[in-house]
């Protein structure tokens, strides 16, 4: 089971305020624990929405609309993520609870969401085979 720990943005993260060295050290220690446990798949912080781009589809079948950031409502945005693969929902919760306050100052908020596996979305064997081939190709590209 894969889960994404979504770190919500704050006014500080949207202002581009970098984390303290203390917080960086705590997050690095946490990430080392995830690696040692063999559950870490990916994790990164995101730049503020002022450097972001939002693409929307306001009309069915219409052209996409491109809008440059910044975007409003910092609490609804994402400042970073950690992707883990664990055996159960309970294990994912345990790991999320161990993450240091991602922004310090008691403002951190983490949303934990399970990632769909292809078999949960598609049931056509041909489509699943194509998806498996694409994923294999991505893994092979990482090797080179």
Characterization of this structure:
By secondary structure, this protein is an alpha+beta fold. Helices cover 38% and strands 24% of the residues. The chain contains five helices and six strands, in the order βααββββαβαα. It has helices at 11-14, 21-37, 89-98, 118-121, 125-143; strands spanning 2-8, 40-45, 53-56, 65-68, 78-85, 110-114. The protein starts with a strand and ends with a helix.
How would you summarize the topology of this molecule?
Elements: E1 2-8, H1 11-14, H2 21-37, E2 40-45, E3 53-56, E4 65-68, E5 78-85, H3 89-98, E6 110-114, H4 118-121, H5 125-143
Antiparallel strand pairs: 1-5, 1-6, 2-5, 3-4
Which features would summarize this protein structure in a list?
four-stranded antiparallel beta sheet; 24% strand; single chain; 38% helix; two-stranded antiparallel sheet; 144 residues
Short note summarizing the structure:
Helix content is 38%, strand content 24%. It is α+β, with helices and mostly antiparallel strands and 144 residues long.
Shape: globular
Strand order of the largest sheet: 2-5-1-6
Low-confidence stretches: none
- Percent range of helical residues: 25-40%
- Helix-and-strand structural type: alpha+beta
- Secondary-structure element sequence? EHHEEEEHEHH
Number of beta strands: 6
Which strand-content bin applies to the residues? 15-25%
Query: What count of helical segments does DSSP give?
Result: 5
Q: Mean pLDDT, nearest integer?
A: 91
Largest sheet: 4 strands, antiparallel
